[in-house]
Amino acid sequence: MTLIFEKLRKQYGSHVAIDDVSTRFEPGLIHGIIGPNGAGKSTLINMTAGSYIVSGGEISLDSKVLSGLKKYQIANAGVARTYQNIRLFDQMTVLENLEVCFYPSQIGQVWGEIFWPPFAQKRLRMRREVCMELLSFFDLQHHADAEAGSLPYGRQRMLEIARALVMNPRVLLLDEPAAGLNHHETAELTARLATLRSPDRIVIVVEHDMDLVMSVCDRIVVMHHGKLLFQGTPAEVQASSDVQLAYLGTGNDIDDIKTAAQNRRAQLGIRTRRRS
Predict the structure, then answer these.
(1) Residue 52 sits in which domain range?
(2) How many domains does the chain have?
(3) Residue 145 lies in a domain
(4) Is residue 106 part of a domain?
(5) 49 lies in a domain?
(6) Three-state DSSP string of the chain
(7) Which pTM was predicted?
(8) pLDDT tens across 257-271, in order?
(9) Mean pLDDT score of the chain, rounded to an integer?
(10) Is residue 100 one of the residues assigned to a domain?
């Protein structure tokens, strides 16, 4: 099982957001996608999940072409995701947010549950067991009956990841899962993500928190201006001069910025305060 991007392209009018990106993601690993703002990270996730239409190239999972399929078809193929902005069912309970994930796959059994109570009870127990196991993993079991919207922000983040795991996806796409978390919550998330490695699952994390990425990811794809800049292990990424240049600029770039700032201050008549 391999998720493959082949000469992937996304274009909005004359603007090219993703340009000729080819790479592959293997199971058993946690893959990171990093890059400056506007590099195209979330666009890759949105195309993989079917939220954005692919302009060119192909996305395939285990030889099955995903690009061009509807979102529900991609989900049925085993792809699950979270979002930058949390999208829970706020008025439903924490448990119900997970249980609802079963219904698309079990809709054909509705009549059986209606007319055969023992079957309905068996299916309900099965769903509850799976959901409560996930809630326990994310330390949410004590909030099962609470409305999802009443949870603290960090707990909502955990709930969204738990919901994405309900159907045991083959591909798990996490779009900035640490966004808005404090230091303690990020450390907790990092520890839990590390346990999601499975020989039957591909995990892809888009994230700005470099400490999280470098500590939990096995392979990292670096995007810059919609292009694939570099890919490798965390150590290889950290050692890459191309990555350092894209993120930090050169010494001359920094000097030029300082000079431009000083000239702007002079034009505006702003005096630099000296420290005593």
Answers:
(1) 3-89+152-268
(2) 1
(3) no
(4) no
(5) yes
(6) CCEEEEEEEEEECCEEEEEEEEEEECCCCEEEEECCCCCCHHHHHHHHHCCCCCCEEEEEECCEECCCCCHHHHHHCCEEECCCCCCCCCCCEHHHHHHHHHHHHHHHHHHHHHHCHHHHHHHHHHHHHHHHHHHHHCCCHHHCCCEHHHCCHHHHHHHHHHHHHCCCCCEEEEECCCCCCCHHHHHHHHHHHHCCCECCEEEEEECCCHHHHHHHCCEEEEEECCEEEEEECHHHHHHCHHHHHHHHCCHHHHHHHHHHHHHHHHHHCCCCCCCC
(7) 0.83
(8) 456 556 665 666 655
(9) 86
(10) no
